[in-house]
Write a structure and sequence with these properties.
alpha/beta, Rossmann fold, six-stranded parallel β-sheet, 13 helices
Amino acid sequence: MRRILFLNTDLELGGTPTVIRELATRLTKATSAHIEVACLGTFGPIAHQIEQAGIKVTALNAAGALDLMVAARLIRLIRRHRIDTVFSFLVHANTMAAVASEFCRDVRFIQAIQTTQPRPRWHWPVQAAAQYAAERIVAPSHSVAQAARDWAYVPPEKILVIPNAIDLPPAISDFDRPAEGGNVRIGFIGRLDPVKRVEDLVLAMSHVRGARLQIFGSGERRAALQELIKQHQLEDRVTLRGPSSGPAEALRQMDLLVLPSEAEGFPLVLIEAMAAGVPIVASDAPGIRDVVTNDATALMVPVGSPERLAGAIQKMVDHPDLRNRLAADAFVEVARRFTWDQVLPQYRRLLQI
């Protein structure tokens, strides 16, 4: 029986911890493998959700990014629990797994790279060193695979592209839509940090008529966004909602999702919106263009152009038939490419279970 450990930097709310939760719970149900999860930091909300599914979670309680003793605790965990496969995600976890591999020679190590962001620049040289310890490198999109080749010098034959996935509802959700002449409900879901370029979306709202914006998420840019909203007198049309209980709950409150990021690894929120029947406006950025196609499953605009973003949003606001067409075609696309029925077997082959 395989004994597999999924390792991440943290298990807070976010895309990668959510992927790990889904993998751990689904593989536990579908196979006879023994699955465990660990994080370098302390317990977070996703850790508790994984435990509620009956899966053991270990927090290695790193004192900080430079706490090298966490590698010793990881080695003890691998040995004590007789782990034969370690699947790590993100650069910090990949680095600690690479250190542990020097002391656990009979263990198989797999790493996942999840980002296309060039910054922080030190991440990529560190990942380049760590990748030598891995048998395979998993990327969720071809954009991430390209970044892994270019910036972490991963040999192409070592990379395996496996997309993220969701459960598909039987049909597009019948959400409450605005009444005739009412405001179209625009939404953003994600971290409020610079790479998401939420400021571009706020600035775009200065030029959009007949719509309101709700921003779901928390992060370092919250105060700056609040000031920008006040500066442009958008308090009655733009609301910072804070983190939602989950993307499904936030998506029920919107008629259009906007993702203006400059880079993504694999934006899980896009396939969640596609499955929920919520049409999309997004930037033509790495990671995003792996999921949606302009004028087929979304409207896409250049990165960093609030004016072009406003134009695409206004087009969606003014043309409900366009919103309906893009949402319907996006639902077909997510069913074709991004369901767990298609993706989980790829992980089973990788993990040999």
